[in-house]
Design the sequence.
């Protein structure tokens, strides 16, 4: 990485593609490759990947800890945002930390899939044990995400430097990558 | 199991404010698992004036799983496949919430038409064009809107009249138009073929 940083760009092989404009992700297990051209923000890419599988399920304890509240005459306006049934007074419902209320059945079903509030996305505590189990137990999705992150870091050094240099607006002056231009040197792998 | 009671409520709510939102949702059959959404192209975009149909399939887990949505009308947009109509939109994937509805999801799709995100493309060719030659992109998108998303401005009666003038019996013309959803070209094809 350091040697790349110090190299004069003029001395690079002419067909080498600027890594700032083309990001290649390789999945070592599936031998799959993702080429992202014109990617301008490393951070946004990383953020997107982190969100790829949505919020993990809420912990059992946190679901059980949600208070049960009664719908009273003064607060019976509105509906359960999950089943769209209007509140009936004196019904017992569950109240999340963010104050949003849902039928117990409705919200528990959701929180076991994704641990956030359906209305405001307030995030519930995640069961660490569950997460660990999934990761070690070969949950492919998570494994894949972690691998991508590692590869990503290996590109970040180049990308950041060039970003700082001159490329404030890569979309307006991007080099042309015609299908014929890629060569072996483009396909950097994790090193 | 799809929560059909909720889907029914959604359809009622949606038809109540169709005037304000311009968003329509109608079942394709009577099982409510397959529907068609309709959104007007946003004003001030290359999609303005177009009417876009979206195929909706509800998964068994709806509303705990997102509805599957895909453009049935061809559209030229970085985040929509120009081939299949597949939509790249986070709320239809990992950012779905059961508090969203078919209407709010369609509103998001409509918003996507206004604010393309070429950095997260569904159609790489369109995204490249958007980034490198914006004027050509706008031209192509507008042309596709004109070609694929504009139903004729003629009313039903005028269409029937047109077909009658071509020599088809009125009742036949009317039923042909109905069977193809009002598109006079398709109706003509149908009349000619059988
Ligand atoms: Zn409910
Ligand atoms: Zn909330």
Sequence:
């Amino acid at each position: 990485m350091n040697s790349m940083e110090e190299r004069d760009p003029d001395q690079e092989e002419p067909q080498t593609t600027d890594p700032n404009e083309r990001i290649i992700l390789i999945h070592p297990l599936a031998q799959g490759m993702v080429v992202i051209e014109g990617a301008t923000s490393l951070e946004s890419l990383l953020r997107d990947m982190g969100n790829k599988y949505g919020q993990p399920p809420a912990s059992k304890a946190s679901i059980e800890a949600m208070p049960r509240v009664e719908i009273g005459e003064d607060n019976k306006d509105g509906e359960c945002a999950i089943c769209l049934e209007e509140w009936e007074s004196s019904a017992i419902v569950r109240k999340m930390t963010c104050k949003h209320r849902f039928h117990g059945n409705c919200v528990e079903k959701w929180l076991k899939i994704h641990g956030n509030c359906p209305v405001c996305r307030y995030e519930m505590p995640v069961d660490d044990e569950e997460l660990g189990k999934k990761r070690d137990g070969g949950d492919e999705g998570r494994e894949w995400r972690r691998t991508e992150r590692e590869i990503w870091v290996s590109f970040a050094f180049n990308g950041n430097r060039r970003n700082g240099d001159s490329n404030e607006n890569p979309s307006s002056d991007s080099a042309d990558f015609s299908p014929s231009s890629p060569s072996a040197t483009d396909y950097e792998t994790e090193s | 199991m799809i929560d059909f009671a909720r889907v029914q409520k959604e359809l009622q709510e949606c038809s109540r404010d169709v005037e304000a939102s311009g968003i329509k949702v109608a079942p394709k059959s009577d099982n409510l698992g397959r529907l068609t959404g309709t959104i007007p192209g946003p004003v001030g975009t290359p999609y303005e004036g177009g009417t876009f149909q979206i195929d909706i399939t509800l998964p068994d887990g709806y509303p705990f799983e997102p509805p599957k949505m895909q453009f049935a009308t061809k559209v030229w947009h970085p985040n929509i496949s120009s081939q299949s109509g597949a939509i790249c939109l986070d709320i239809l994937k990992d950012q779905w919430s059961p508090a969203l509805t078919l209407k709010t999801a369609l509103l998001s799709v409509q918003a996507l038409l206004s604010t393309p995100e070429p950095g997260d493309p569904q159609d790489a060719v369109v995204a490249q064009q958007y980034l490198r030659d914006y004027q050509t992109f706008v031209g192509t998108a507008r042309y596709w809107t004109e070609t694929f998303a504009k139903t004729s401005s003629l009313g039903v009666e005028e269409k029937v009249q047109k077909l009658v003038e071509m020599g088809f019996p009125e009742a036949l013309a009317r039923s042909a138009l109905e069977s193809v959803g009002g598109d006079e070209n398709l109706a003509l094809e149908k009349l000619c073929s059988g």
About this structure: Chain B has a mean pLDDT of 92. Strands of chain B lie at 24-27, 34-40, 51-57, 68-71.
